[in-house]
Amino acid sequence: MSVLSVEQVTKIYGSKVKIRAVDHLSLSVEKGEFIAVMGASGSGKSTLLNLISGILPLTSGEIRIDGKDISRLNEEEAARLRRDKLGFVFQDYNLVDTLTLGENIMLPLMFQKKDPDTMRREAHIYAKKLGIDTVFDSRTYEVSGGQAQRAAIARAIIHHPSLLLADEPTGNLDSASAQQVMRIFAALNTEEQVSSLVVTHDPRTASFCGRVVFIRDGKVFHELYREDNQLHFYDEILSVLKFLGGA
Ligand SMILES: Nc1ncnc2c1ncn2[C@@H]1O[C@H](COP(=O)(O)OP(=O)(O)OP(=O)(O)O)[C@@H](O)[C@H]1O
């Protein structure tokens, strides 16, 4: 069973003037896959993420997460699905500034009402894994962007979601921090089989993934699978982007 299955999904915005943001799009993510979604501004990437996370209703089609049809959920069920099955990483980290990094990492476990000792222990395990244990008790404004984003990743996966959704996770980072963050994504993918969908404009970020899905006008335009060499994959991604840009 696929972790995510998007079947012939269409999203039309507006009533008088209709905008077809996503158009009969199909995509599936298998357990342990690490996928980048690329496409020009306005091609429908954010709409697709919002449909998958159940924030936006579909116009037609079907989306299943772990086999469960999310288009049939009521608001409360959709919220529970987001909380239990999905993890989110955003461009601007979305950490809570009044909490320490460690407390931010623990947040999903607080919602699961775990006891404080277990929460702290598990948060430390992830902070160590992501190389931010030394700033566990720091505030969000006392750490670098790369450290903040690594805390956001720890928070996104600490409850073992089925699917990690990331929207421009390296968008605010310098290139060294961006590479470090993507190496962490890749390691989590290999070591813990975290299935991830990463929306990005950056070909270097995408080259860490195993597959890149290119979207144009709300449709899947092309897909690339990485063989072994990241540099070669990067070149292939650039060629498709050049073609997309010129088309
Ligand atoms: N709430 C909305 N109401 C009406 N139209 C919308 C809305 N949100 C997005 N759109 C339109 O839908 C299309 C797809 O937008 P979307 O934001 O999904 O693209 P994107 O690929 O994420 O772009 P970007 O890379 O700039 O974030 C665009 O034409 C956009 O103008």
From TrEMBL:
One Pfam family from the record: ABC_tran
Keyword Transport: yes
Domain ABC transporter: 4-242
Keywords assigned: ATP-binding, Nucleotide-binding, Transport
GO MF annotation terms: ATP binding; ATP hydrolysis activity; transmembrane transporter activity
Xref: InterPro entries: AAA+_ATPase, ABC_transporter-like_ATP-bd, ABC_transporter-like_CS, ABC_transpr_LolD-like, MacB-like_ATP-bd, P-loop_NTPase
Keyword Signal listed: no
Any one GO cellular component localisation term in the record: plasma membrane
CDD domains assigned: ABC_MJ0796_LolCDE_FtsE
Stated name of the protein: ABC transporter ATP-binding protein
Organism: Porcincola intestinalis
Higher taxonomy: Bacteria, Bacillati, Bacillota, Clostridia, Lachnospirales
